[in-house]
Amino acid sequence: MTIPPREDAEEPTPVSVLTGFLGSGKTTLLSHLLRSPDLADTAVLINEFGEVGLDHHLLRKLDETTVLLDSGCLCCTVRDDLVGALRELFWKRRNAEIPAFRRIVVETTGLADPAPIVHTLMRDPLAQHVYRLDGVIATVDAVTGPATLDRHAEAVKQAAMADRLVLTKTDLAEPAAVAALSGRLRHLNPAAPILIARHGVIDAAGLFDAGLYDPKTKTLDAQRWLNAEAYAGHEHHHDHHDVNRHDDRIRAFCLFYDRPLDWERFAAWVETIVLAHGPNILRLKGLLNVAGEARPVAVHGVQHLFHPPAQLEAWPDEDRRSRIVLIVRDLERAFFERTLASFNEGPGALAPAAGA
Predict the structure, then answer these.
(1) Model-level pTM?
(2) What is the pLDDT of residue 312?
(3) Measuring CA to CA, how many Å separate 254 from each of 189, 234, 272, 356?
(4) Residue 240 phi, psi dihedral angles, 5° rounding
(5) Which CATH number fits domain 242-342: 3.90.180.10, 3.30.1220.10, 3.40.50.720, 3.90.226.10?
């Protein structure tokens, strides 16, 4: 893993992943979003049109898999192959066979693990070149959400990996229950803003532009993307394991290091822990002070796949510490501190920053 130079090229199309457990209100939310002017010039990839109820705002059918909505959105079916759908959209746009679009929203099924979609955007050569992951949006039902999180590991993973959490059906839940669920979600995923959808309606502008690269400013918005300070004090400590509380197995924390990191040793550490524990590393984000580099380096991985590291134009603030955010399952903070230190033994051995 080497640090490539940053190149200014045509802006990649942002892709947002909309996930959420069965019955969490994801489909209702999407249906309202598709009528929003903020999502004009958007392509939406869903499993079946019938699941979303598009007939009332269907404009015309462009081909067997694509329709044009009265909001200006394209809506396409994804039957088996996300890569194929992304490639087809790209070439149809390039050849002017469909209206131009500036954003893609991918809706997952209720039982889906969002990681494979994120993997696709990291792994497929065309996807890497013309698309970028903007963020993962997860809906959580305020009424049944606690029981769903207790019983279904998939729902916990959806929430843990999200960049935005959307609480639905809050009008049907007691305020105390909504507050308790919000607290649980904050411990599970400290950095993700928790937004409220009222009767399935939410301001679309608050859901998007959550990713590393901000096309509005042509910069890498590291502070918003990483939000390392949100993890301070949020690591879970449990005296026992409850088999019906899947999020008891999830930990979210941030490691800080004052001393610049040796890139080759850091890369070797990442490769080693991913080889041994990839499925349990739900997300790894980092803003690194690399020895010999004047500018910070951003790293991002999901399970066993990692984006190529990106060198930022400048530090986002005066803090020059390396910050490594981890959301993991069945692994302890001490394991990562110990193993990273073991890869940096010798004079000036690496140790976490004071107060981290």
Answers:
(1) 0.80
(2) 86
(3) 12, 9, 19, 8
(4) -150, 165
(5) 3.30.1220.10
